[in-house]
Amino acid sequence: MLLTIAMTGMIAYAGVCGYMYLFQGRFLFKPTREIEATPAAIGLEYEDVTLMAADGISLHGWFVPHARPRAVVLYFHGNRGNISQRLESLRIFHRLKLSTFILDYHGYGRSGGRPSEQATYLDAQAAWDYLVHDRAVRPADIIVFGRSLGAAVASWLIIRQRPAAAVIESTFTSLPDVAAETYPLLPTRWLSRFHYNTLENLRQAQCPVLIAHSRDDAVISFQHGKRLYDAVVGRKDFLEMEGGHNDGFITSGDDYLRALEGFLQQVLGPEPAVDE
């Protein structure tokens, strides 16, 4: 009887491990196709952009210009939805007198293909090439910004290119680290097919880095943000936000805006007050 129970438990445990290994992409990538709104909904002009990733997949994004831009933000969003749920960030960057290019990954929004870790890296490189080659933006005028999963993608890009600076917001040290915290009874480090090693990337960062994280983040603990900050050996700053994982930048309000402005002034030089 006890042997039967033990065998049943082992089989069930193996089944859970097998499921986690095979279908972990479904836990990580949560794309939606419908474009719910465009920057025009908040009064911003924009350009629809279509470009090609190195694997031949068509990608879709928006370029949101500022009339007198001090720099261009290259924005990598999180794992859910698509670019149409990031309008509030586009508004914030516009207030900071920044143009913004935001892109949907493989399988998100109007972009083709299917998402994967390697695909997001192809997306990041394609977005960088678009700004530098197609729009003739100098690398020294590009601020790479990533939130949550997008910050891990951003960390990959900044050690391969030389932007003016990077903002790494609400993200993890690595995906296996998060999995180990979330599923402590499973051998997640062995099972992980996705790595996104943000910590190792930031150890190699050559540009100034702003790490932003909230103590209230219930999805990715505050300690991830502190470890990432400690890993940066060069010029760096830390923004402690308030609020949850998905709304910290909103809950923090003007404190968030002031912190970004202060970081930008350090990197780009002084500018007049933000646009109202």
Given helix and strand content, the structural type is: alpha/beta
What letter string, H or E per element, gives the SSE order?
HEEEEEHEHEHEHHHEHEHH
Q: Based on DSSP secondary structure assignment, what is the total number of beta strands?
A: 10
> How many structural domains does the protein architecture include?
1
Class in CATH? Answer: Alpha Beta
Could you say which overall geometry the principal axes of the C-alpha atoms support?
globular
Poorly predicted tracts of residues: none
CATH superfamily assignment? Alpha/Beta hydrolase fold, catalytic domain
Cross-sheet strand order for the largest sheet:
2-3-6-4-7-8-9-10
**How can the largest sheet be summarized?**
8 strands, mixed
Q: Count the helices. How many?
A: 10
CATH architecture tag: 3-Layer(aba) Sandwich
Overall pLDDT, averaged?
A: 90
Cα-atom Rg, whole angstroms?
Answer: 20 Å
Amount of helix: 40-55%
Measure the end-to-end span. Answer: 72 Å
Q: Assign the CATH topology.
A: Rossmann fold
